[in-house]
Specification:
The structure is a homodimer.
Chain A: E1 8-12, H1 36-48, E2 53-56, H2 67-70, H3 81-90, E3 96-102, H4 108-121, E4 126-131, H5 136-140, H6 150-168, E5 196-197, E6 202-203, E7 218-221, H7 226-235, E8 238-239, H8 246-263, E9 271-272, E10 275-280, H9 284-295, H10 300-311, H11 334-347, H12 351-360, E11 365-368, H13 370-382, E12 388-392, H14 398-413, H15 426-430
Parallel strand pairs in A: 1-2, 1-12, 2-3, 3-4, 4-7, 7-8, 8-9, 10-11, 10-12
Antiparallel strand pairs in A: 5-6
Chain lengths: 443, 443
């Protein structure tokens, strides 16, 4: 009998919680995003729970939102991933460390060098989340008046990836002999000068860092659009996508794994890990109350303005504590409008509750006990909706501590999650192969 | 009576030792540049000795040298400063952490954000060594066929500095109120949108990081050329220059401090710290023997080829173990040629010894006992040759451990060096003022 498939768990830690009301939750650390002592404690707790990875998204600008909402946002200040993750590498031993780096606003030589350095420093625990940066405000911080258009960003990303992986292969794995007697530090026949010239980049190389411990750091991608999914199928080893529910998840899962088949890649060599917001209670009711309390901390004035835009109808004059009435048809985006109305009906939400839910976090969520959450995760795994989850904690530290103390042991009891690390590298945790060097045969 | 001036000490740690034979020295760690366990141990040892700063130079390419020399060089693989220094920040508490970042091949938004992040993460210990990158091979790794010319690099550097410091001032020091009750995370009236548009950069801002602990991280520069010295006088707080000897040092010291006078800056607000290679023995003779042994580990074939170039005369056919004979006049650079001949005469070196000295390290060096080294350092301080030194260790760990165990206590005994840190930030260590925010009055 084949070994049972197990879940992979990442922690989505930038922002430490995606929920806009979280910093006001009782017992929360309002500065969790930007206090190294807290972040160190979180990473060590996640490592003790045997998480695969600590995952850092990134933004290259203060988020473009109205000032009334912005001034309430705990995301406005946070560490650069390439400062936080090396620091966490120094105070952890096994957990993977995944940093986002933009192919639109970075240079491939810098990116190759930083990830190679992090991989060496951490003993093979680095992962690169490739993003093309969709926030047009970022362009204004990098000398571009107009944001690069979507398809061009993806063409550039593909070439960027080719350059970075080529630079990682600058040295054979056994190039550094360090022979004190003869005085030979490395074998120059085992150094490759890349000499890349393409439409977007001209990069000579070689990299001034030895080949990474993992050969290449693990490649992550979000991969939502058509171009994004294809880039992911060609290059990614972990896809971290935002799925709205199991039905949607199974569709995307089948689509991406199907692309692997057509490319001749093994289905096991790309893991699909949707983001999931998890609220744990000792009863389902308690979990729902926690979520309702959290949502209630979202500022109503900002939330109702956003809801009016989503519905294409000014709902700010309605009774906030009554159910959402039937609304006339409008020109608002159908998807957003229908999703909001459907959510209000399904959970029987008042106007205020609906506004605050959408203003806080409204994507994929598991809200319940350790048992019901493990049930849902198991269903996703067994029915091929995902290979695991990138967990978003509702508030810190309580939401993280609850997940680790309650959900992880339940998953372990069911044989759905490891009880200890079985290897030392991030590739080991995911069961991913170590890439060969394109320029040198294995020693 | 005014308090006695004291020395400032930095450790020049990239490469961990600049001497090309160092990795072959008995007891040395051949991989010291690239082994985090060693580097952590070095940083903690330097902190226990109360060093001001751990300083990391940088190269954005494998050094351009003939392959016969390159394959013997321990510098070919080393960590990116922005991976190593955050990791060291997590395992130290007081020592300053100075990273080199190039204004020619980086973007100001990234640089501002990384240094601000490092300053917060380390509790105010970050320093930025501004370089314009003189290695033309670096340009080839960043899509430029030709290296930017010297004066243009300096004009770009000056604008880069203005943008970075402007981004550091994006928020008033008291902008982040995090008022849980009202839900206000920060005061938007205390956020400044930079809106910089200049010849080289267009950067909107604001930075997505709170103002650094130090206001601005401490600014370091090498400042050797005329343009470099002027940029240093206008912007730098520590100048790390390469001086050949005390006479040269006093000239450059007077020149740079004079520029400060003319700019209306206090002489105390820019510290001059030349690099100094220090070999410690229990007797002067023992120290000289250590250095001779170290020099003897430089590969003769590479060294004699370089010496021939420096002298403008093929000396490879001469008896390597005889003194350097008189040589006919040539077209070789007078400075290099005369310096080599003068060195051979002064120290009575054979051809081999001269070649290996120049191939290893031939700049400012203090070779002697703790007493003679402290005498020399004191003379530099008292006669205004420098405000301290950036120490280059001849080999690791012995050279570093000897300096800390023998020279530091002798300097402390004389009252020339602190016996404990008196503050927590790098500015505190140097006695530098915290810059005001150009957009907001102090709270």
């Amino acid at each position: 009998m084949a070994e049972r498939r197990r879940l992979h768990l990442g922690a989505f830690m930038r922002p430490t919680t995606i929920h806009t009301g979280a910093w006001r939750y009782p017992g929360a650390y309002p500065d969790a995003n930007f206090n190294f002592a807290h972040l160190k404690r979180f990473a060590q707790t996640l490592e003790a729970a045997k998480f695969d990875a600590f995952f850092m998204a990134d933004h290259l600008a203060v988020l473009n939102m109205p000032v009334e909402a912005l001034k309430r946002s705990h995301t406005v200040t946070s560490f650069d991933p390439f400062v936080l993750l090396p620091a966490l590498a120094a105070v952890t031993e096994r957990i993977g460390l995944v940093a986002t780096a933009s192919t639109t606003f970075e240079q491939p030589f810098h990116v190759a060098r930083r990830f190679a350095s992090l991989d060496h420093l951490s003993g093979g625990r680095a992962g690169w989340n490739i993003v093309t940066t969709s926030n047009p405000d970022a362009a204004l911080n990098f000398g571009l008046d107009e944001h690069m258009e979507h398809d061009e960003r993806y063409r550039r990303a593909r070439e960027f990836y080719d350059v970075v992986t080529g630079l990682w292969d600058s040295f054979a794995d056994d190039a550094f002999v360090r022979d004190v007697e003869s005085g030979i530090f490395f074998d120059p026949d085992k150094m490759h000068v890349l000499g890349h010239k393409g439409p977007y980049f001209s990069v000579r190389g070689p990299l001034n860092v030895a080949r990474p411990v993992q050969g290449w750091p693990v490649i992550f991608q979000a991969g939502a659009s058509e171009a994004g999914r294809q880039l992911a199928a060609e290059t990614a080893e972990v896809v971290f996508a935002g799925f709205s529910g199991l039905e949607d998840g199974r569709k995307v899962y089948a689509d991406i794994k199907g692309r692997l088949d057509r490319l001749g890649r093994s289905r096991d060599h790309l893991k699909i890990m949707p983001g999931a917001f998890v609220v744990v209670g000792d009863s389902v009711e308690e979990a729902r109350e926690k979520r309702a309390r959290l949502d209630s901390l979202v500022h109503y004035d900002s939330a109702i303005a956003s809801l009016s835009i989503a519905l294409g109808h000014d709902v700010s004059k309605l009774d906030p504590d009554a159910p959402l009435p039937d609304l006339p048809q409008t020109n608002a985006s159908h998807t957003g409008r229908e999703r909001a109305i459907e959510l209000a009906r399904r959970e029987n939400l008042t106007v205020r509750q609906l506004a605050q839910r959408l203003g806080g976090y409204s994507g994929l969520a598991f809200v319940g006990t350790a048992q019901t959450i493990a049930d849902e995760m198991e269903e996703w795994l067994v029915t091929e909706g995902s290979d695991g989850f990138n967990i978003m904690f509702p508030f810190l530290p309580e939401g993280l501590d609850d997940f680790v103390a309650k959900v992880v042991p339940e998953l372990q009891r069911r044989g759905l999650f490891r009880t200890d690390y079985e290897g030392t590298t991030l590739r080991d945790h995911f069961g991913l192969p170590r890439p060969g060097n394109r320029f040198f045969a294995a020693p």
